[in-house]
Amino acid sequence: MRRLFVVVCVVVLLLVVAHGVAVGPVLVQGTRAIREAQAELATRQRTFAAAVMADQRRWAGDPLFAPRDGGDAAALLFQHVAFEGRAAPQPLPAEVVAGLKDAGADWPRATLDVSSLDLGWMAQLAGFGFWDVEGPQTPLSGRPFEGMTEPIPRFTDVLAFSKARLLKGLASGDVQAALDEVHELSRLCLTTELLVGDMVAVALLGLERQAAEEAARRGLDLGGRQVMTEADQQSLKRALWVAPASTALLAPTTPLDPRFPLVGRCSAERELASALLLRPWAEPLLPERYRQLGDQLAQSPCRLRRLRAAWQTTGEGELPLSGAALCDATAGGGSCEVPDFVTRLPFVRPAVGAVLVSTATTDWFRLYDGDGGAP
User: Fold this and answer.
1) Fewest C-beta atoms under 10 Å: which of 4, 116, 145, 306?
2) Torsion sign (Cα): 114, 117, 120, 125
3) How many Å separate Cα 203 from the centre of its chain?
4) Which residues contact residue 238 at a Cβ distance below 8 angstroms, ignoring those fewer than 6 apart?
5) Global confidence as pTM
6) Which of 13, 233, 207, 196 is nearest to 106 (CA)?
């Protein structure tokens, strides 16, 4: 994002030098870049449509995504999982964290002594329905929405606790319970409405498989339990990563599929934070797309309470139409010489917006390149 704003600042500085004369060509070039990006996205969507929908259908009915009663797990989880800027009351001991880090990919065979760790709280995870990371139990409660910069849970703690629990299960021989508890934690991560939460959930399923393989090597009884294969794990990762293509500013006018996305919808809609950030600059160029996205958010079954509120207001979560905002966004970055009046010159707003939109794109189909796109 910093590089993106530097590009924008260069454009704006050129406009200052040219006293606005160059704005027209910049707008034309930016609009052309938008059309080219849309065409490229449409091509990739057509290329991978069958593979995308195959992955989506594969997971739509999986128990990992089934609604569950039981309420919010935040109060329990945030006793142990830190939030960026706020420590957890009962963290994993530092020596265990360090030992896991030293073990790296070979963590299932780490010689850490985890016998004294009290991880009984993880047995309670199955009783919860979801994990709300911005609810009343969190630092985000009541805070203005700043979706691109605000703190999130420290998901590295989730991974560390899961490894510790699996190691304890391997050491005690009761690996089945450990696998169950980590699986429940993966399920809850899928309810955070954060794409990073989804990716951590996928990683936890990989930890399950590694622990099960180590258990089999040791001759421990898994009771016939089946863990996710690596192929299925990659399929799930693709399904979740591609879901935000449904909320992309430059999405093709022809939808990939009327049902898309079947999984990952809430995290995909949370990615509207980027569209919200660019809205003051980009909406004049893409008014119909912003209307569609607003309708989609309004009709969403997801929580997303703070994003919804910000979408209905002016200024919250948005990049203001000012040189000062560009300066802050780049932490200096050469943009602090841009006076505010420049951003109010005729055609500057759509010209800068065109540059922003055409460069601030994510390739949501990238995991389908190569074998991932095979029919």
Assistant:
1) 116
2) negative
3) 14
4) 51, 52, 55, 367, 368, 372
5) 0.90
6) 207
Classify residue 267 by burial, with Cβ atoms within 10 Å: 0-12, 13-18, 19+: buried
Residues 6+ away with beta carbon under 8 Å from 37:
250, 357, 358, 361
Cis peptide bond N-terminal to 261, omega within 30: yes
- Long-range CB contact pairs, 226-232, < 8 A, 24+: 227/179, 230/206, 232/58
Three-state SS string over 53-109 comes to HHHHHHHHCCHHHCCCCCCECHHHHCCCCCECCECCCCCCCHHHHHHHHHHHHHHHH
Q: What is the C-alpha to C-alpha distance for residues 54 and 194, in angstroms, rounded to an integer? A: 23
Query: What is the predicted pLDDT for the residue at 339?
Result: 67
Task: Kindly report, residue by residue over 313-353, the tens digit of the pLDDT.
Answer: 999 999 888 766 656 554 555 455 556 766 666 567 777 78
Q: Kindly tell me the burial class for residue 226, based on how many C-beta atoms sit within 10 Å of its own C-beta (0-12, 13-18, 19 or more).
A: exposed
pLDDT band at residue 16 using 50, 70 and 90 as cut-offs: very low
Query: Which 3 state secondary structure label does DSSP give 153?
Result: strand
Closest CA to 187 of 166, 167, 202: 202
Q: What is the pLDDT of residues 20-68, one digit of tens each?
A: 445 566 667 778 888 888 899 999 999 999 999 999 999 999 999 999 9
